[in-house]
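Worked example

This section walks through a single chain of length 184. The input is the sequence exactly as stored; nothing has been trimmed or padded.
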Amino acid sequence: MVLLNSEKKELGTQAPDFKLMSVEGKKYSLSSFAQADVLAVFFICSHCPYVLAIEDRLIELARIYRDKSVQLLGVCANDPTDYPDDRPENLKKRWQAKGYGFPYLVDESQAMARAYGAVCTPDLFVYDKNRLLAYHGRLDDSWQDPTKVKTRDLQDAIDCLLEGKKPSEKQYASMGCSIKWKKG
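Given that input, the structure is written out below as tokens.
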């Protein structure tokens, strides 16, 4: 397992378009979420201990923002060859069992991860109504222990956008396992 920090991205960068299938067999693109004022894109997977440690908090965010103009979106870009937990059928089982509350896309070609500049799981991006990058960083200040969370960085960024404000430019990198890129 290789521990990486998310790479700094220039705020204000346009969200790249994509066309991917979800674990439940629906096709999505960037325009599928045009109605939402905020789009949060999470590069996640089913085997990384860093993702597993924050997974329930991501699911809770879906509950918090269910009736607001916020769309959460999970994406798994890992090559499942050596990580069977990240095979689409296993992603779907976990998505159903945990009740994610947001679509979970399979980036089989890894083109979306490359376009977004995702390097680790979790790698978390938040876009405004114009789909300009407003936040790219960690979920909160205690990935290991939810009882020790003092700052909810990602949630604060979403709340700022919903209030018509810009999130703080002081953003801390997310950290996690490297995306499992296809060999060759």
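What to look for: The domain at 3-178 is CATH 3.40.30.10 (Glutaredoxin).
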